[in-house]
Amino acid sequence: MADPSSYRPKPGQIPDSPGVYKFRDEHRRVIYVGKAKSLRQRLANYFQPLTSLHPRTATMVTTAASVEWTVVATEVEALQLEYSWIKEFDPRFNVKYRDDKSYPYLAVTMNEEFPRVQVMRGAKKKGVRYFGPYGHAWAIRETVDLMLRVFPVRTCSAGVFKRSAQIGRPCLLGYIGKCAAPCVGRVAPEEHRELAEDFCDFMAGRTGAYLRRIEQQMMAAAEDMEYERAARLRDDIEALKKALEKNAIVFNDATDADLIAVAEDELEAAVQIFHVRGGRVRGQRGWVTDKVEAVDTAGLVEHALQQLYGEETGDSVPKEVLVPALPEDAEAVSGWLASRRGSGVSLRIPQRGDKKDLMVTVARNAQQALALHKTKRASDLTTRSRALEEIAAALELDSAPLRIECFDISHLQGDDVVASMVVFEDGLARKSEYRRFQIKGRVGDTQIWHGEGQDDVRSMHEVISRRFRRYLAEKARTGEWVEEEGRDGGEAPGQEAGVVSGEVSALQEEDGRPKRFAYPPQLLVVDGGQPQVAAAKRALDELGIDDIAVCGLAKRLEEVWVPEEDDPVVLPRSSEGLYLLQRVRDEAHRFAITYQRAKRTKRFKAGPLDAVPGLGDTRKQALIKHFGSVKKLRSATIDEICEVPGIGRKTAETLAAALAEAVPAAPAVNTATGEIIEEDDGGTP
User: Fold this and answer.
1) Per-residue DSSP letters for 513-570?
2) pLDDT tens readout for residues 625-639
3) Burial of 108 by CB count in 10 Å (0-12 exposed, 13-18 middle, 19+ buried)?
4) What is the DSSP letter of 220?
5) What are the angstrom distances between the C-alpha of 495 and each of 259, 358, 430, 490, 589?
6) Which terminus of the chain is more exposed, N or C, with fewer CB under 10 A?
7) What angle do CA 159, 163, 165 make, to 5 degrees?
8) CB-side exposure of 297: number of CA atoms within 13 Å?
9) What φ, ψ does residue 480 adopt, rounded to 5°?
């Protein structure tokens, strides 16, 4: 590990001008390329104390052994040089997008004497017109088959073309009228090229004028009583319209635009692009990338623009590019795009109307692409096995943790504190065993803290204690157990707090599997760093449990913390073990925040308060927070109601009268047990 101060440039050595810089490692390999409006200011950010740098940036500067830069005249030149160097050196710490699949294009080889229409994948070639990308190759072939009736352009390979020319006989497409047969001289090279250019113009969106011209020819042929030619032109028009129907109309005007959306988490990001030409969606593509460098949404957008348009020129760069966030140097990026296109390009965030609505659809596709990418990784048995083995090796466990439980705390500024427990078995989520907890500052009948000092560490201690107290209780029973109130354990995903079940159940399921909390994990994961891990370990020690491994995953740093260690366990970014721990942590966070939001929504739905004139959401929330429940508010005096901030005496009198007239709702009943669910009055459930 290198010390960044050993290769830090001397003060005043770095110019205060636009440029591009490269970090090299000890073997002189380029590991990172970046650009800056001011090289001096940007490079100074890399030589701060390591503790103040983002972990990924700190890893990069300690891997590097030298830094060098090149001064350019403008920010647009810096953007172009940065793209060229990234393509040339492929730095390991730069964001590199990879296609989530190889997308096919409809290509017309205008660089050949007799242009050919075909399906192409991979790198683009000079002199070839591309349209798409398409989701499937068969979609291209269907479109081409419809259009060959009107534009009989050559589609055969070089070998077939040469063979037909030698024998003087065209292929089948030439006989059925779907090829102009330039191989046997039916049309001159100039005529065939004109057909190919018309084909390209139609695919590029210039459809209205061409259709009107064919309709005029059809009408003229009918007037001249050339009915066969008129019928053929009529069929051509129908074929072209059918081809157009395969592309959805999204904008009423003939808009040419690309819409880019990003979905991301701490480790990965997915980018989706919709290509709109002539108001129709002509193609769609997507990328997935590892977030190797510290980059935000604006940075991801900038990298996507470089990847998308770095090799494009002319009409391949649209007049309008819609993005979810503008790059840091938006003007420079717009200028670079304009230089690629040869005319102005609008780079902006859609604010309203059809473009805003379509951007929502693109963003939804990006979210689905990221979820699908994660699902593919998680569903592979070999990958899951490797992930569990990597976790076992990193934490020095005796065996792979086949059952992992993860806990997370969620609250809103100290209110509605809840916790979640999610379970993963063999690397897959087992949602039937998820549990959720209300945090009230108690473990059993013991008050462990008072007042408003609730925090994540003490909440974590409480929830771990409650979960494993139930485990020990069920383990100690030999025949049967009685489910107690939710305060001693957790609630099932659909179970409300405060339900006294009284239901007697066997310790074992019908298949012999332990029930609920009777089955311990091999690994306990908490969402947090060293303090949360220490609290979880302390809770287990107090209960005398020493056979369950504990670790924590800090969200910002993605570091794995273990008890009684000053330094975290750092798993490689490519580690499947880190990826599994992240999925477990994110699932616990999702489950916790969903429950917390549901609790908050239920608390704010005050029932009778909604009918009080002039009582808005803010004052309703203040009343519920002050009294704890509508039940206590109903029994309060007018003077006590006036003590709530924002509530005057007139409002208090109106409120008291409304609550006195309101009829309390019928008690809720648990349909599973038939027991009444008591109203939550703010006490321990």
Assistant:
1) PBPGGGS--SEEEEESSHHHHHHHHHHHHHTT--SSEEEEEETTTTEEE-TT-SS-B-
2) 888 777 788 888 888
3) buried
4) H
5) 43, 39, 17, 9, 19
6) N
7) 120
8) 12
9) -150, 170
Instruction: Tell me: cis bond preceding 104? Omega within 30 of 0 counts.
Output: no
Residue type, 86: I
Helix (H, G, I), strand (E, B) or coil at 507: coil
- Whether the CA torsion 301, 304, 309, 310 is positive or negative: it is positive
Count helices and strands in the chain by DSSP H and E runs = 20, 25
- Other residues' Cβ atoms within 10 Å of the Cβ of residue 328: 15
- State the pLDDT at residue 85: 85
Q: Determine the Cα–Cα distance for residues 553 and 317; give it in Å rounded to an integer.
A: 43
**What token pair was written down for 373?**
């990418």
pLDDT tens string 252-300: 666 788 899 998 877 778 888 888 877 777 777 788 877 766 778 888 8
The continuous run of DSSP H or E covering 337 comes out as helix 330-341
By residue count, the chain amounts to 685
Q: Give the C-alpha distances (Å, rounded to integers) separating 237 from 151, 153, 253, 443.
A: 12, 17, 21, 77
CA 444/CA 488 separation, integer angstroms? 6
Q: How far, in Å, CA of 498 to CA of 669, rounded?
A: 11
Q: Could you identify the residue written with the tokens 């018309």?
A: 198
- Enter the pTM of the model: 0.47
| Residue pair 279/253 in contact by the 8 Å Cβ criterion | yes
Rg for the chain (alpha carbons), in Å? 33
Cis peptide before 133 (omega within 30 of 0): yes
Which residues on neighbouring strands pair with residue 491, listed in sequence order? Answer: 436
Q: How many CB atoms lie within 10 A of CB 117?
A: 25
